[in-house]
Design goal:
The chain has 645 residues and is of the alpha/beta class. It has 3 domains: 116 residues, no CATH class; 266 residues, no CATH class; 203 residues, 2-Layer Sandwich (Alpha-Beta Plaits). 43% of the residues lie in helices and 21% in strands. The strands form 7 sheets. Strands 19, 20, 21, 22, 23, 24, 25 and 26 form an 8-stranded mixed beta sheet that branches. Strands 1, 2, 3, 4, 5, 13 and 14 form a 7-stranded mixed beta sheet that branches. The chain is rod-shaped, with a radius of gyration of 46 Å. The two termini are 57 Å apart.
Length: 645
């Protein structure tokens, strides 16, 4: 049953945690934990850059890291930045003639593909619109941008914002620039396509990939949507969900090389008002350097005022949308995809871990279990970092940590409940015939109570009323019961006060054990002390009864010491903590033969008891007796008093 309970508890905890992390507030916390991996990887990559290695080839530091990830050199950003606004001395949106000139200069500089993260979905001046479309058609290397606008409500229709008619007339490729954020508004995934009227409209990055080698008006024929991936030419982009891919960011904002929009525009034919008459002609330097030769060039805003920036897992300054497209393109071109571990596989691993931890927690002390939880969470985070850095694999972090904390708390609660149940059982079982302080000690160390029996060295005391049958025949039942109650109460008090336990009453016979379930320094001496005190108490009672005009009786006591099987020797229904064996049988025999010997106090002990108390008591040798089933005789002694009495 305990095994089934462990499995059931682990399953319940996993289901509860999975349910909690379906809520956006909890899910975003797990996102934050995974975001820390991006930041740590970026720091590690900075430390392993060639200039950070102090000239020591191959040095990677204490943390093993694959070669630092750097953006694909074929991807360059043309930034519409503050310098561009200052140099052109104009406001947004720029005239379409500017963008046409940009296409011309970029093409002259050898750009393989020009990708605009600028939407031309509304008409401007007729001349500017026509010039932009004609220039793009002439150079045959431009990708434009559009968008799918989702309806505000469930019944509101979606809208498709395609480039202006002049551009569409030339059948120039275009892609959507939709950005979907997670519940905490961070961009972690890239929208590969959007469905509008059951027709897929591919993203700007996908359109760029489809045209990166062969620019064609039939570029969509090179794209196929499969169950778990999107095929774009020779690229296989794994899906996350039905239309997204995880972005394996190369770094925070400004990681990709950027060239100012104005610098590309600045040739001898363009006036730059912001330069106040100075002629820099920066374009010619770009042309001579060949920096744009055969590159995929993305054109987009990096200035804050245009509100095209988004938070990403790397933190810091928000990343421009154009750079998010660049991250996606570079990731696909490098075939460096970010993936998540199969959730069903991870669920099985998590279940196994929780079951193992449950077993460990049940055996360890709570403080050690707490340290183990902290250590395991730290190791799990380190494993997550290693998988992320070296395999680009994401695994849940916070979910597992919370699951471990839950299983630890649950184990504590179960341990507490089991302990309380065990203590209640022990208290109920022993409080009637054991000293309260002995019960308290037993509750502190319940393992001393062996269920099923164990071999222990103990001392046993038997006490019996002489001729009690005759006594009961000569007195009324009420008189017999009353005097027996008074006698037994007094005798049990003596036993309990000396840390013995009352094993049982057998009619008028008393059986007491010493040295179990808690060990005593000298259980044989305790048994002898109790025997003498019982004798003294018996004398007091006899005097009391005589003064009251009642007839008393006499008792005999036997004490023996040795090995016996002690424990729960009852049935499944009734608990009976007792002892059995030759030691117990001899103790009963010693009590019974009291009437055969003339002794002053009617107490007989065995040689085995005397061996442990010989310097502590006064005795008188009586005889040697044989016990049934034993060939060797046992020496017996009359117990007279304690040595220091």
């Amino acid at each position: 049953m305990s095994k089934y309970r462990s499995i059931l508890l682990a399953l319940i905890i996993i289901l509860v945690i999975k349910g909690l992390f379906l809520f956006p507030s909890f899910h975003s916390l797990d996102f934050k934990a995974q975001d820390s991996l991006f930041k740590l990887r970026h720091k590690l990559e900075q430390k392993t850059q060639p200039e950070a290695l102090d000239g020591k080839a191959g040095k990677r530091g204490a943390f093993r890291l694959r070669a630092p990830r750097t953006p694909n050199e074929d991807v360059v950003i043309i930034a519409i930045d503050d310098a561009s606004f200052s140099a052109l001395n104009t406001s947004w949106p720029f005239p379409r003639e500017y963008h046409a000139k940009l296409i011309q200069n970029l093409s002259l500089a050898g750009a393989r593909l020009i990708v605009f993260d600028v939407e031309f979905t509304e008409n401007s001046s007729p001349g500017g619109d026509a010039l932009l479309a004609e220039m793009a058609s002439y150079y045959d290397n431009v990708i434009f941008a559009g968008k799918v606008l989702r309806g505000a409500g469930p019944h509101d229709p979606d809208q498709l914002l395609s480039p202006i008619a002049e551009i569409m007339r030339y059948e120039i490729p275009w892609g959507i620039v939709n950005m979907s954020s997670d519940s905490d508004n961070l961009i972690r995934k890239y929208d590969l396509f959007e469905l509008h009227d059951d027709t897929p409209y591919y993203s700007l990055g996908v359109a760029a990939l489809a045209n990166s080698r062969i620019y064609t008006k039939e570029w969509q024929k090179h794209i196929r949507i499969q169950k778990d991936k999107l095929l774009v030419a020779e690229n296989k982009i794994p899906f996350l969900g039905h239309n997204k891919a995880l972005i394996n960011f190369y770094g925070p904002a400004s990681t990709f090389p950027q060239i100012s929009y104005a610098s590309v525009m600045d040739d001898s034919t363009v006036s730059m008002p912001g330069y106040q008459g100075l002629e820099f002609d920066e374009f010619y330097e770009i042309l001579e350097s060949g920096i744009l030769k055969d590159k995929i060039v993305l054109v987009g805003a990096t200035i804050d005022e245009l509100h095209d920036k988004f938070p990403t897992p790397l933190g810091g300054n928000w990343t421009p949308g154009v750079e998010i497209h660049a991250n996606f393109l570079s990731m696909v071109m490098d075939q460096d995809y970010l993936s998540e571990l199969n959730p069903w596989l991870y669920l099985c691993i998590e279940l196994i871990i929780l079951l193992l931890m449950w077993c460990v927690f049940r055996k360890l002390k709570p403080q050690f279990s707490a340290l183990l939880v902290i250590l395991f969470i730290a190791l799990q985070y380190l494993l997550a970092l290693l998988l992320f850095v070296n395999c680009s694999l994401l695994i849940p972090i916070l979910q597992t940590a919370v699951s471990l904390a839950f299983i630890y708390i649950t184990s504590l609660l179960c341990h507490y409940l089991d302990t309380m149940k065990e203590k209640r059982f022990i208290r109920q079982a022993f409080q009637q015939y054991m000293a309260p302080e002995l019960v308290s000690e037993l509750l502190k160390n319940p393992k001393n109570l062996s269920y099923g029996g164990s071999l222990q060295e103990i001392s046993v005391l038997f006490s019996d009323i002489r001729s009690f049958t005759t006594y009961s025949e000569n007195h009324t039942p009420q008189e017999t019961v009353n005097i027996l109650k008074e006698y037994l109460t007094a005798m049990v008090n003596v036993i309990v006060e000396n840390k013995g336990i009352l094993d049982k009453f057998v009619g008028d016979e008393i059986m007491a054990l010493f040295g179990t379930p808690m060990p005593l320094p000298n259980h044989a001496l305790s048994a002898c002390t109790v025997a003498l005190q019982m004798r003294d108490k018996m004398t007091e009672l006899q005097q009391k009864w005589e003064s009251e005009g009642r007839v008393g009786f006499e008792i005999g006591i036997g004490v023996n010491t040795g090995q016996a099987v002690v424990g729960n020797l009852g049935s499944e229904q009734i608990f009976d903590y007792t002892a059995i064996g030759d030691t117990i049988n001899l103790g009963a025999r010693l009590e019974g033969i009291n009437k055969e010997y003339e002794t002053s106090k009617h107490i007989i002990i065995s040689e085995f008891t005397l061996e442990q108390v010989k310097d502590l008591v006064k005795v008188k040798y009586l005889d040697e007796v044989k016990v049934k089933g034993k060939n060797k005789a046992v020496k017996i002694y009359e117990l007279i008093d304690l040595a220091d009495a």
